[in-house]
Design goal:
Helix content is about 50%, strand content about 5%. It is mainly alpha-helical and about 650 residues long. A two-stranded antiparallel ribbon has the order 1-2. A two-stranded antiparallel sheet has the order 3-4. Strands 5-6 form a two-stranded antiparallel sheet. The longest helix has 20 residues.
């Protein structure tokens, strides 16, 4: 596979540093060398105003700034150092750490520098509710529930680190009030800095939290609380064991490890957790960071295979493709997790994850791109690329992809089916992130699934033919239903409308659309052509994701600035639609723009951030600059010239 930097969010590594401190294992988990590089990373991403963004390119936020300040202090930075002094001033000037969003409040409470009654409740008793309720946590989007699961356990036991001289100092450094003891924690519960407020709490949440605050004293230390915490820990252990202690993501990884430590500091679970922290760490020119996943290995590998084959040069890179084929084969999930319904999991046998088989959480689009790559390699000479994955294993993947399709909408969500209704989003407690409560259907997941199913049925027309035909019909209808009036699709997992529209176009074409017969496809092409810049390229700012409206990327002088990755997506969509048969000029201009940016060694520049999750947090896909330029230029050479 191709290794790459999957960093970007600034709130991940501080959580690990806090956890290591609370567990009194900073030397084992962080150590001198890691600590030095982590500190360098944090300092490199301080904004000019002294604050820190939610992600590396974002405006300063209380969340990013408070956690970075705490992390720097825990790593040994003095409070009066220029970096800490400037960061602290940013915090105090905006009301102090009481203004940090709920996730920040939680981390401070675990460290012992914020009071638990200054948080809105996270009762583990929610897991004891009947599953038929729409707001049962088992119905939440898996990333949401797997973060709030250990949070509910830690909240339920009021997990707090031992007080130290440093935590005492932080109590006096972080707050704007006259003293720590004078803070009004009830007021602080719902306080949130304006810089962080992406999803304001609706009034119904205020009612819910106020009610739960009144109930909480009766639950604390009760038999019900004990049973709820025991149930939460059983689920945490299940997740740990089924992911080989990698866990679904970096936040839940650290929270799970902390939960195991508070349950039993000397447990085997803690001993197994610590070595797998390394899976999330990445060292780059800016220092050591904690990635947003344990990597994007399978995802990048599947795209890379398709890109290399698209160039027509596969015969020259047989060994490269053979090794990629080997990784794809080895990373396929071979079995379902045990008792999937009991533990709120979806079937997974035959599917592909985003990263590694150890991680093991398959996703609809990752399974689909993995299947597409496997089918592409299966059509090639085994002497060149290695033995094809057996058809029964590919059929297992098809079974999972078909199971992912939602009966109501016809679309595909990410890890599971959509299990509840959209109104549950009213209970989203995270002020910083949007659309986290349920697993929504997306254009990317739906299009990738449709493409994979169609590609499979072309090679194996007699396997699940009726089911695939039905999926194509309903999936195509879903794609059309979410297309915007201007012809675009909103991309939820990368920046942004060029990405979503690339998927939308390929999904329509896979299910039978042509430019001549499909008005939806023509509108999509018109949209892309309308956004081409004079320089021949396309570009979007991450603001497109936040604002959900097209925002062109511009340089410091306000001029449009082309982005290789956006240009690649637009080119791939236009070529697939047959633009070269109508007017190849936009494609010639785009290719010239792309080639003008290539370095002498063949590489391309790493430009602004291109990944996103939950509408508001950006993440790096460092391989994209190579994958999509190569893919687009390959298609251009073979289908346009």
């Amino acid at each position: 596979h191709w290794a790459s930097d999957y960093g970007g969010p600034m709130f991940l590594m501080p959580g690990l540093i806090i956890a290591a401190n609370v567990m009194e294992k900073s030397e084992e988990i962080i150590g001198e060398a890691r600590g030095r590089e982590m500190l360098r990373y944090l300092e490199n991403h301080l904004n000019e105003d002294g604050g820190v963004g939610l992600h590396i390119e974002g405006h300063s936020t209380m969340f990013g700034t408070v956690l970075t300040y705490v992390a720097m202090r825990l790593l040994g930075k003095a409070a009066d150092s220029p970096e800490c002094a400037k960061t602290r001033k940013w915090i105090i000037d905006r009301g102090g750490a009481t203004q940090v969003p709920s996730w920040g409040k939680f981390w401070l409470a675990v460290l012992g520098v914020y009071e638990w009654h200054g948080l809105n409740p996270i009762p583990p008793e929610c897991w004891l509710l009947p599953y038929w309720l729409p707001m049962h946590p088992g119905r939440f989007w898996c990333h949401c529930r797997m973060v709030y699961l250990p949070m509910s356990y830690l909240y339920g036991i009021r997990a707090t680190g031992k007080p130290t001289a440093l935590t005492a100092a932080l109590k006096s450094e972080l707050y704007a009030e006259a003293s720590y003891d004078s803070i009004n924690w009830n007021t602080a519960r719902n306080a949130c800095a304006k810089e962080d407020l992406y999803y304001p709490h609706p009034w119904i949440q205020d009612v819910v939290w106020s009610t739960l605050m009144k109930v909480e004293p009766f639950l604390m230390n009760s038999r019900v609380r004990k049973a709820a915490c025991e149930d939460a820990m059983r689920q945490i252990h299940y997740e740990d064991e089924n992911t080989r202690y990698v866990d679904i993501g970096p936040v839940s990884k650290v929270f799970n490890m902390l939960s195991c430590w508070f349950e039993d500091p000397d447990s085997e679970a803690v001993k197994k957790h610590i070595p797998r922290i390394a899976d999330y760490l990445w060292v780059a020119e800016d220092g050591m960071k904690m990635q947003g996943y344990n990597g994007s290995q399978l995802w990048d590998c599947a795209f890379s295979v398709q890109a290399i084959v698209a160039t027509g040069l596969a015969d020259e890179y047989g060994e490269c493709l053979r090794r990629a084929h080997d990784y794809i084969e080895k990373s396929q999930v071979r079995d379902d997790c045990p008792d999937v319904e009991k533990w709120y999991r979806h079937i997974s046998k035959g599917a592909w994850p985003f990263s590694t088989r150890d991680h093991g959480w398959p996703i609809s689009d990752c399974s689909s791109e993995g299947l597409k790559a496997a089918l592409t390699l299966a059509s090639m000479d085994e002497k060149l690329v290695g033995e094809a994955i057996p058809v029964d294993r590919l059929a297992d993947c098809v079974n999972v992809i078909l199971s992912y399709q939602n009966r109501g909408s016809g679309g595909w969500a990410t890890y599971e089916n959509t299990r509840s209704t959209k109104w549950v989003e009213l209970l989203n407690p995270a002020e910083t992130f949007g659309d986290i409560m349920i697993d929504y259907p997306y254009v990317e997941c739906s299009s990738a699934s449709l493409q994979a199913l169609c590609k499979f049925s072309e090679r194996y027309p007699d396997i699940r033919a009726k089911d695939i035909a039905h999926a194509k019909k309903t999936g195509r209808k879903f794609l059309k239903s979410i297309q915007r009036a201007d012809g675009s699709w909103y991309g939820s997992w990368a920046v942004c409308f060029t990405y979503g529209t690339w998927f939308g176009v390929l999904g329509l074409i896979a299910t039978g659309s042509t430019y001549e017969t499909c008005p939806s496809l023509r509108k999509a092409v018109e949209f892309l052509l309308s956004k081409q810049q004079e320089n021949g390229g396309w570009s979007e700012s991450y603001l497109s994701c936040e604002k959900k409206a097209y925002h062109e990327l511009r340089d410091k002088d306000g001029k449009p600035k082309p982005h290789l990755v956006n240009t690649g997506w637009a080119m791939l969509a236009l070529i697939a639609s047959g633009q070269q048969n109508r007017d190849a000029t936009p494609l010639h201009r785009a290719a010239r723009c792309m080639l003008s940016q290539q370095y002498e060694n063949g590489d391309f520049p790493q430009q602004s951030i291109m990944g996103v999750f939950n509408a508001n947090c950006m993440i790096s896909y460092s391989c994209y600059r190579s994958i999509f330029t190569l893919w687009a230029l390959g298609e251009y050479c073979n289908k346009v010239l």
